[in-house]
Amino acid sequence: MRKIILLASVLMLTNSFVHAQKKKDLIAEIDKLRSELKGTQGELTEAKKNERVSQSKVKTMEAQVADLKDTNASLLANMNSFTELSNKKATNLQTSQEIIKSKDKQLNVINDAITANDSTNLAVFSQFKNAIGGDNIKIGGSTIFIILPNTTLFGENDKNYIVDEKAKSTLEKIAATLNANPNLTITVEGNSNALKLDGKKLIDNWDLSSRQAASVVRVLQTDYKVDPKRMEALGKSEYGTEGIETVTKIIINPKFDKFYNLVKDNMKN
């Protein structure tokens, strides 16, 4: 009986020890799990934090991508505009070059006409120079001047307006050259500054200069058959802007009509 009681006591103690050991192990396991749970919660918190940071970075990157897309679209639009502008500039440049070529061609035609006109004037000048000789003939610009002193044409009397017979040989040479060049016209310009006009027969130097010029035109027409439609008479006086010159000028007027029409037609084109 005592053995049974002892065995029962041993069993009870053994069971108590095993139970205590299991309880201790269970508590240790619980503590371990709690520790692991705490660590896991920390990791979860850190993961959530990292997730928020990542989401923020993603949003930032998405915004940057959107900006880049907008910038790229703007660049493409600007590039298209630049290409279009470049094409327009190229077209305008080509048009300008064509206009310049056209204007250059027009200028060449006009320049050739001027050269031809100058050559004609030089030839006419040479003809008059050979005809009357001396230094009485001048050329200025495109106009030829024959300058004859009034004393040569009208004598020593400064109030005379009738051409002296001695001067007609010179006028005859001038008339011959004019008749040989029917395309030329002339203006006979009288200049006088006579003093003590009586105011009756000759009113003033305007009157005297006009009569002297008309007298020269009349001799060229009547004596030497120069077409009167090609001549005109002009009288000046002591009030001339070029000062007092007691000379008669025969101004050879170039025929500019053809030249002007040529220029006009080229400007229209």
TrEMBL record:
Residues 23-78 form a coiled coil. Keywords: Coiled coil, Membrane, Signal. Residues 141-269 form the OmpA-like domain. Residues 1-20 form the signal peptide. One of its GO terms (cellular component) is membrane. Pfam families: OmpA. InterPro entries: Bact_OuterMem_StrucFunc, OmpA-like, OmpA-like_sf. SUPFAM superfamilies: OmpA-like. This is Chemotaxis protein MotB.
